[in-house]
């Protein structure tokens, strides 16, 4: 079987079938997936190629986006609303993970925002 495959590859090379492939002459971008268990590697690769993230990573991404959004909000009520949403997402993420509480995401508190806004107004 290996000889047949090698022969077919050589024939294709001689015909020039591989000459105009994208990335020709560039090194392959190989990913290190050694941290993923062997039985899950194929599934992870399929999900990644389909642009699907695991639920935990999707939630982390949404948390970071909401944090960026918070920094630009000036309205106190809207900021409070987004802060509640953010804290809920952080709590959800922390309950999904099976790690020590030392590594949990910290929640954002409305009082801290108000204190900061009061300091900014005095300046």
Task: Explain the overall architecture.
This protein has helices at 2-15, 41-49, 55-72, 76-96, 110-122. The radius of gyration is 25 Å and the shape is elongated. The protein is an all-alpha fold. Helix 3 (55-72) runs antiparallel to helix 4.
Percentage of residues in strands: under 5%
Classify the secondary structure makeup into a structural class: mainly alpha
Order of helices and strands: HHHHH
Q: Would you report the number of β strands?
A: 0
Unreliable residue stretches: none
Biggest β-sheet description: none
Supply Rg: 25 Å
In short, what is this structure?
By secondary structure, this protein is an all-alpha fold. The chain has helices at residues 2-15, 41-49, 55-72, 76-96, 110-122.
List the defining traits of the structure above:
123 residues; mainly alpha; 5 helices; elongated
């Amino acid at each position: 079987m290996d000889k047949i495959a090698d022969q077919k590859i050589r024939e294709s090379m001689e015909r020039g079938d591989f000459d105009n492939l994208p990335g020709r002459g560039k090194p392959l971008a190989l990913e290190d997936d050694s941290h993923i268990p062997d039985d899950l590697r194929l599934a992870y690769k399929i999900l990644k190629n389909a642009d699907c993230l695991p639920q935990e990573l999707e939630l982390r991404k949404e948390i970071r986006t909401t944090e960026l959004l918070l920094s630009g909000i000036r309205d106190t009520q809207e900021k409070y609303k987004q802060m509640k949403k953010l804290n809920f997402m952080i709590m959800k993420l922390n309950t999904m993970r099976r790690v020590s509480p030392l590594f949990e995401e910290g929640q954002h508190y409305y009082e801290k925002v108000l204190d900061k806004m009061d300091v900014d107004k005095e300046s």
